[in-house]
């Protein structure tokens, strides 16, 4: 048996692909041979330029994934362009920070909807084709807060714990259909999402001191693991929440 990390001939759909971790994952999947559909709200010029260098086919889909409304149309557009979806990366996510006693219902709903509800129903829509073909990979982006409570981020901790739970639930039901579902739990990665933490000198130093690897993560640190989980080499890996965190959880 040959061990393969090759994604040639595969089609990937990556949400939140125009910035940070999602962009790094989209580029890495294309470098591994996949054609890539990008779903996000922001201008994708930088992502498209990086993807062009890989020579793979790309599809730019501007879509607001704060509700389930656009899911059906999104999947139809990818199928119309590429005919199939072999790899789904559920990366789109938001965070809202506020003291627990002041935390609003709006911030609860927004985070749960984008980070968890849309993740599940997009996976469901894409999994129908995967199950019909008897193969597919779903990679969810979880968080250290899938395991820990955090401070001032209760809806994010709830949503990301939910991502871990739904990853196992989907993996369990889809394993016999040839579909693997896993999650990556990034540690502290330098992106827009963590810009406020990075610019807070005290907090940033405290975080750095607690990371055994002695540095913040880079989006590419997550992308390598995503390629592995999307590849045939991971055909027997399912239902895992894999921390990629410079050793944070080992401490
Ligand atoms: P970014 O803020 O750069 O990325 C978040 C992405 O989510 C953006 O590309 C954004 O797309 C997309 N997104 C958010 N809301 C919507 C929406 N309504 N519709 C469509 N797309 C949306 O930060 P990161 O790269 O860090 O975050 C990526 C993922 O990694 C998130 O799920 C985050 O929770 C997770 N994560 C990050 C960690 C870190 O330390 N950075 C740690 C643990 C987890 P657009 O701008 O186009 O709307």
TrEMBL record:
SMART domains: PKS_KR (SM00822)
Stretches that traverse the bilayer: none
Gene3D superfamilies recorded: NAD(P)-binding Rossmann-like Domain (3.40.50.720)
Enzyme class: oxidoreductase
One GO MF term attached to the UniProt entry: NAD binding
EC number: 1.1.1.127
Domain Ketoreductase: 10-210
InterPro entries: 2-deoxy-D-gluc_3_DH (IPR011286), KR_dom (IPR057326), NAD(P)-bd_dom_sf (IPR036291), Sc_DH/Rdtase_CS (IPR020904), SDR_fam (IPR002347)
Top-level taxon in the UniProt lineage: Bacteria
UniProt keyword annotations, A-Z: Oxidoreductase
Alphabetized PROSITE patterns for the sequence: ADH_SHORT
Pfam family membership, one: adh_short_C2
Family classification: Belongs to the short-chain dehydrogenases/reductases (SDR) family.
Protein name: 2-dehydro-3-deoxy-D-gluconate 5-dehydrogenase KduD
Organism (species): Novosphingobium piscinae
Gene (name only): kduD
């Amino acid at each position: 048996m040959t061990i393969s990390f090759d994604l040639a001939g595969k089609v990937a759909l990556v949400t939140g692909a125009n910035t940070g971790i999602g962009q790094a994952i989209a580029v890495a999947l294309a470098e591994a041979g996949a054609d890539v559909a990008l779903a996000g709200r922001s201008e994708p010029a930088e992502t498209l330029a990086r993807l062009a260098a890989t020579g793979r086919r790309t599809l730019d889909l501007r879509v607001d994934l704060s509700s389930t409304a656009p899911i059906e149309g999104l999947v139809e557009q990818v199928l119309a362009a590429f005919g199939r979806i072999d790899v789904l990366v559920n990366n789109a996510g938001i965070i809202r920070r506020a003291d627990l006693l002041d935390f609003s219902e709006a911030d609860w709903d927004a985070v749960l909807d984008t980070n968890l509800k849309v993740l599940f129903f997009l996976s469901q829509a894409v999994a129908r084709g995967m199950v019909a073909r008897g193969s597919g990979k779903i990679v969810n982006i979880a968080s250290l807060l899938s395991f820990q409570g955090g401070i001032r981020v209760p809806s994010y901790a709830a949503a990301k714990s939910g991502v871990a739970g739904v990853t196992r639930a989907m993996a369990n039901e889809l394993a016999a259909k040839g579909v693997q579902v896993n999650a990556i739990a990034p540690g502290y990665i330098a992106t827009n999402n963590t810009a406020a933490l990075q610019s807070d000198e005290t907090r940033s130093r405290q975080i750095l001191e607690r990371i055994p690897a002695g540095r913040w993560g880079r989006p590419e640190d997550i992308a390598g693991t995503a390629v592995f989980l999307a590849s045939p080499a991971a055909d027997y890996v399912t239902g895992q929440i894999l921390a990629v965190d410079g050793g944070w959880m080992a401490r």
